[in-house]
Amino acid sequence: MSDTLINEVKTKFIEIFNQNPLLVFSPGRINLIGEHTDYNDGFVFPAAVDKGIAAAIQKSDSGDCTAIAIDMDSAISFDLDALRPLKEGSWENYVLGVVAEIKKRNLDIDDFNMIFKGNIPFGAGMSSSAALENSVVFGLNTLFNLGLSKQDMILISQKAEHHYVGVKCGIMDQYASMFGMANHALHLDCRTMTSVPYKIDFKDHQLLLINTNVKHSLSDSAYNDRRAACENISELLGVKALRDATEADLETIKNKVTPENYQKALYVIQENERTLKAAKAIEDGDLETLGALIYQSHEGLSNKYKVSCDELDFLVEQAKKNKQVLGARMMGGGFGGCTINLVAKTEAKAFAKAASKAYKNHFNKDCSVYFVQLANGTHVVK
Ligand code: GLA
Fold first, then answer.
1. Which tens digits make up the pLDDT trace of 24-46?
2. Ligand 1 centroid from CA 322, angstroms
3. For the chain, which ranges sit under pLDDT 50?
4. Which of 85, 227, 221 lies closest to 165, judged by CA?
5. The pLDDT of residue 121
6. Which residue has a Cα nearest atom 11 of ligand 1?
7. What is the DSSP letter of 244?
8. CATH architecture of the domain with residue range 3-199+375-380
9. Which residues are catalytic?
């Protein structure tokens, strides 16, 4: 599937710029469990997938830079010496933000042209934004021999999102997209930024994503609010991050925080625990336990952390009605995007069909079903 994408951006690039481009594929990600724990210095469990962004990129001698988004049928030209963010919600900010962060490091880049196209929709909760950022930084690093390590590159991508997009994201998405390994999920410690790869073979079970195809507004400000609430509570507790706190610690300050924020911190502490337990369950091949943890994760995201929405809750309810689905939860930042489901292989298609039908009946709109493979991280395509 990514072959077609790569060919498309290559052909288009040659057509428009009359040059052979460098080709980069940068994947989106899923996350088994560990949601909203990354910016609390905690554990997450993501994997890169076989869907993402294909980018064609090459030096330019036209005196400025051009980036073209085939999906959006949109283009921008910019001057490397006059970078600034555009209005909120513009795809351009992901590209401009990465370039600005590279320049902040006083690295020597020159004009370039770039064309990209993706096969995960923006807002699906599968990190098309991290995939795009990583494709830009990886492409520029290769093109201009910047000598950046993968660690450097993901920090640049993350800062681009903080400063140009305005979302104070953690490191999970950029890490998974950059460091992904085929057939593996990464048990990532977001404090040390090191991960242990887990081979994922669920035998007679598989993962299945269902996209609600909604992205409720306010999700960015809600994200930043959650992060701020977590940081306030860590400060009250006198710890560096919520990763360092226990439920018992939280009890000691219960009367100093609002009930809502107490619930949010409780969710984070519990989700971090669940992520460690999930790693153990995978080691033991105990899918029942893994599934139960995934359902608990959703319960916390929805009722305590309050980042779900009706559409996501509905799809998780559909999963619960089917005994062959061991676990389901919303994935990513929330307020829309996908659910991730752990389902028996023999039941996957039937479940997807039934859930889609129920969704259509209830919301009068379509959801989308994705079967994904766990794949390698950002790389140059030869
Ligand atoms: C978004 C952010 C990530 C992470 C998730 C929630 O995808 O970009 O850093 O916080 O939400 O787990």
1. 999 999 999 999 999 999 999 99
2. 28
3. none
4. 85
5. 81
6. 333
7. G
8. 2-Layer Sandwich (3.30)
9. 173
